[in-house]
Write a structure and sequence with these properties.
The protein is α/β, with parallel strands linked by helices. It is built from 14 helices and 16 strands. A hairpin with a 4-residue loop joins strand 2 and strand 3 (62-68). Helix 1 crosses helix 2, helix 1 packs across helix 3 and helix 6 packs parallel to helix 7.
Length: 395
């Protein structure tokens, strides 16, 4: 093993840091089939492209992380190709040989090696928490402050674009006590027809709550015209109605709307969250590892948002059970996650990448409790859907 940065004996922690040195960083690219097409305002997917990171420590323990993107570089700048290339070319070389438990130091090294590239960094940090947690036989939550919550209300997204199909799908989920809060993707077509579709949905789903994600699809004029209609039909939350860069107008829209407004694409790092909070651009923040670039940084984003009086929502980018577990590790340590989470990603895949660790019951997703991320990764299935074998990064 290539020891790049040996820790002097006087600075070693009580446990064996040598055993926790990062011996190998590997990535794999997968195309996991989904149970149905998923439409957003600017893309449409029928399989989920996932980059996985596998980190092996000197003690032989392995940890996994997931780098998520949606429809290539559409939801944000990163694509499966760029995530892998960033890890192999820039991130792995500054990590190999260092002790995996030095989370803060490794995050700093990654931020010096690459700006932004948050999905790539988040995938690595998830794998570090998984590997170190497994080595120390502690859940990642224990390394993040300890668990407060055991489960969260879990939202399901209706995104086929066909209202009759969506009503059937939502009724089945509600009857099975799986979901009673539904997120609908809008901003795809004429707002008048979308509001009519939402009105039908809300009426057809008594006892349920409907929230909408416009995915930056509306102009300010459309917001002024149509948000009162969303309020009228009883929509519970409106996500990112205008362009990500337009925080000034998001603040105006938030001030006018009686329905809470959530910022998503408009706030990535803690600086963005502080600016959005100070400007009151949204009263709710969607937390995502792909925006924060790591577990600690997402926890800090939650703290900054809460300090500005914002409510928190557990966002996703359709991660598999591996990525969902990394999010839940952080969410479960937050004082409050007011809106629960939308980590339904494992169930939109025809088969998850984990064989156990997560469960969905009674409208909730249960947080894993085992060492590391607490999930059992299904290497056989990964091999089936991977585009080639695991590729190791060179030191
Ligand atoms: Mg969103």
């Amino acid at each position: 093993m290539n020891v790049v940065n040996p820790v002097p004996a006087s600075q070693r922690d009580a446990f064996d840091e040598e055993a926790l040195r990062i011996a190998r960083v590997e990535t794999a690219s997968l195309k996991a089939p989904t149970i149905r097409a998923h439409r957003l305002s600017n893309t449409h997917i029928s399989h989920k492209a996932i980059v996985l990171v596998r980190i092996t420590l000197a003690n032989g323990v392995v940890g996994y992380g997931e780098g998520s993107s949606l429809g290539g570089p559409r939801w944000a700048e990163e694509s499966p190709e760029s995530i892998r290339s960033c890890i192999h070319t820039y991130l792995a070389p500054v990590l190999l040989g260092r002790s995996a438990n030095r989370f803060e130091a490794l995050a700093l090294a990654m931020s010096k090696a690459a700006s932004r590239n948050t999905a790539a960094k988040a995938a690595i940090e998830s794998a570090l928490y998984d590997a170190v947690g497994r080595s120390l036989e502690l859940p990642a939550t224990q390394l993040l402050g300890g668990r407060i919550h055991d489960s969260f209300e879990v939202i399901w997204a209706l995104a086929s674009g066909d209202v009759d199909q969506e009503i059937d799908e939502a009724r089945a989920k509600f009857a099975a006590r799986e979901h009673r809060r539904f997120k609908v993707k809008i901003g795809l077509s004429d707002p008048r027809s979308e509001v009519a579709r939402l009105s039908r949905l809300v009426e057809a789903l008594p006892g349920c709550e409907v929230i909408v994600d416009v995915n930056q699809g509306w102009t300010v004029a459309q917001c002024n015209r149509w948000i009162p209609a969303l309020e009228e039909i009883g929509i519970a939350l409106i996500e990112q109605p205008v362009a990500a860069r337009d925080r000034i107008n998001l603040a105006r829209i938030t001030a006018r709307s009686r329905v809470p407004v959530m910022i998503d694409e408009g706030a990535f790092d803690v600086g963005d969250v502080a600016e959005a909070g100070a400007a009151a651009a949204g009263t709710v923040l969607s937390l995502k590892l792909v925006k924060s670039g790591g577990l600690m940084e997402m926890k800090r984003a939650a703290g900054v948002a809460a300090a500005h009086g914002m409510e928190l929502y557990g966002g996703c980018l359709l991660e598999s059970g591996i990525g969902a577990a990394a999010h839940l590790a952080v969410f479960s340590t937050l004082p409050a996650l007011h809106w629960g989470t939308e980590h339904f990603g494992p169930r939109i895949l025809t088969r998850d990448l984990i064989s156990q660790g997560l469960s969905f019951r009674d409208f909730h997703i249960t947080c894993p409790t085992g060492p590391g991320l607490g999930v059992s990764v299904d290497e056989d299935y990964i091999a089936e859907v991977a585009d080639g074998a695991w590729r190791p990064a060179a030191a």
